[in-house]
Amino acid sequence: MTTVPGAFAPPARVLLGPGPSDVHPRVLAALAAPLVGHLDPVFVAMMEEVKSLLRFVFATENALTIPISGTGSAGMEACVVNLVEPGDEVVVGVNGVFGTRLAEVATRAGATVTRVEAPWGRVVRAEQVEAALRNCRQPKLVALIHAETSTGAWQPLEDAARLAHDHGALFLADCVTSLAGAPVEIDRWGIDAAYSGTQKCLSCPPGLSPITFGPRAVEALRRRKTPVQSWYLDLTLLERYWGEERVYHHTAPISMNYALREALRLVAEEGLAARFARHRANHEALAAGLASLGLAFASEEGHRLPMLNAVTVPDGMDEARVRRRLLDAHGIEIGGGLGPMKGRVWRIGLMGESSRRAHVLLLLSALEDALRAEGHRVAAGAALAAAQAAYAA
Amino acid sequence: MTTVPGAFAPPARVLLGPGPSDVHPRVLAALAAPLVGHLDPVFVAMMEEVKSLLRFVFATENALTIPISGTGSAGMEACVVNLVEPGDEVVVGVNGVFGTRLAEVATRAGATVTRVEAPWGRVVRAEQVEAALRNCRQPKLVALIHAETSTGAWQPLEDAARLAHDHGALFLADCVTSLAGAPVEIDRWGIDAAYSGTQKCLSCPPGLSPITFGPRAVEALRRRKTPVQSWYLDLTLLERYWGEERVYHHTAPISMNYALREALRLVAEEGLAARFARHRANHEALAAGLASLGLAFASEEGHRLPMLNAVTVPDGMDEARVRRRLLDAHGIEIGGGLGPMKGRVWRIGLMGESSRRAHVLLLLSALEDALRAEGHRVAAGAALAAAQAAYAA
């Protein structure tokens, strides 16, 4: 016997944190569709559509472009453990939580890791990557975080990818937060492998991690001398289920794949260019409003992500109380800082469905209220006016 | 630009394969509820309810009882990589696909694996486990598959768990297919760690893997000398998110946790004893009907799972054509064989919501039609009559 709790009725939230983002009603409806089996011909046909739509958002022709059955961190681990063998030299850009995590995952996979560090909020310079590569004997992999969700830094990738290839290494990009919110050009930029998450700019619930492996990455997979340490994430097995053979590996998360397909359809209907422009416009309006509230970005100028805005908390302010007021009084979730940025930044996500003019204005209005409640002097309505002006510009 | 496929409208299926099973409309509705954040106080409170309901179905007091953010195979890997360190001696019962998989996962985790083999369809004997333990220097772990989904064999666990402890080893049980369909008594049977999947007798979509770690398993985790090789599945990190600290690890699959909570509520409302009795009654009626169709079980008498019925394909019959007819003409999915049983068995799942009298009768009627189409002589209506008689008994 146990006490049976009542039905769960989640409150209405406006999700403006670092993910999950708001989910379109069409995606929620797709989640609720009746299930078919994971080897049903209807599901198999749907898998092909998901792969094709993922190739579209990744801007790639890579055949091995599939959703991993786990969240973005599972995608990170999948990329690393499939590309890296014990003893391999790996260069990782570390300027926030996710670079730190990637370095840790590579270490656990037996790699010899060189951390290329930049202060949190700043990006890693190509010269640093080059210097690290020069110090390697035979580098296997360079990995950078395209969109550092912990700091809002927008990392350029092209030069680093070229340098990696010049030194005979593969290039891996973390596109968890950038995919479908800012350009991710896998083929044009020469990215050999990348992973993302569903709950950011794809605006699908969390639970899957789209990944893509290009020809060089697939070749490295074929040439492995040791088995992939994770059976669950072993792409040599997964590609047989997602490929033509349809060999059973694990039971694919049926409903989440329905949802991903619908979320990708929404992206394709909007078009990537329009979607990126929308993310940029809402970011700029938010930035104008924040400036008028006297709030500064924690990330480097010129390298600020449009979908993840890290904002410095004013000195002496209890940032958690502000977030709590936004949540309790306004139904708005924003994120706090992680690691060394805990207590020092807010992270405002404008991702996918959450990137909307109405949300920007709502947030600025609520933030004005919450800051005033903390004794911060703000001119009434100034933030909204600044944002409106940015939209009009 | 890409071609945008139309909206996805899955056909109605009766899911009588090895999983996924039918999902209750209340669970589908829970999936479609609006999202909250993974650190939202409302979500955190819901996590506690999920943990409590999981303890109920696992019949355990174990604090570390949580859903892993992946399918059952991720749960298997989570248990193995957290309990095993390189060089550890592990004894694995191998009598089907999932024992074989567990042995492989343990090998990839660096274990020295002793396979205790039994023919597919039969169970592993406690004496075999004891002999294997005697041959170990210092065994760390014994693992058995409670419900071998590939063969329908129902493995007793209690004696093996006791033997493991007698030899100073931990005992791990794969309860993917058994949980919530047959008794799983974690505490009473002395099981130190176990994992399951959501898409079998819990009748929730695939995507999460409930696991439970008891005191001895947690102690082994604390005493590790090496980091867990998987960062994503590292319970020393996961328990800080699912525990009181709520330290961010990865973004929990929000919607899937909603669904799991609702599926567990349905289990609790029915009650475990009633649920097990229902699975048994439908299995017995199916067995009576199958016998009257001249079909034999592939699994050992006295050790047949109620929720997974492996049936021997009559000599010379094209089993795939039968399955295709069931699917196309009747909308019923059943499973084929795996590995050495490919082409030789059908796997009929009566799991969770799929374990219903109406489904048993529907399947027998459809099977009669499909077998007749293959030239198999069957007496019209005999299978239904046999099943009805079994229900009446």
Descriptive overview:
The structure is a homodimer of 393-residue chains. Chain A is an alpha/beta fold. The first copy, chain A, has two domains: 25-268, Aspartate Aminotransferase, domain 2 (3-Layer(aba) Sandwich); 272-392, Alpha-Beta Complex (Aspartate Aminotransferase, domain 1), CATH 3.90.1150. Chain A is 41% helix and 15% strand. Chain A has 13 helices and 14 strands. In chain A, helix 10 (272-292) packs antiparallel against helix 13. The longest helix of chain A is centred in the last third of the chain and has 21 residues, at 272-292. Chain A is globular and about 65 Å long. At the A-B interface, helix 1, helix 2, helix 3, helix 4 and helix 9 of A face helix 1, helix 2, helix 3, helix 4 and helix 9 of B.
Q: Give the spatial strand order of the biggest sheet of chain A.
A: 2-10-9-8-5-3-4
Q: Major sheet of chain A, described briefly? A: 7 strands, mixed
Distance between the termini of chain A: 63 Å
Decide which structural class fits the backbone of chain A.
alpha/beta
Specify the CATH architecture of the largest domain in chain A.
3-Layer(aba) Sandwich
Instruction: Please state the oligomeric state of the protein chains shown.
Output: homodimer
What's the rounded overall pLDDT mean of chain A?
Answer: 97
Stretches with pLDDT under 50, minimum 5 residues of chain A: none
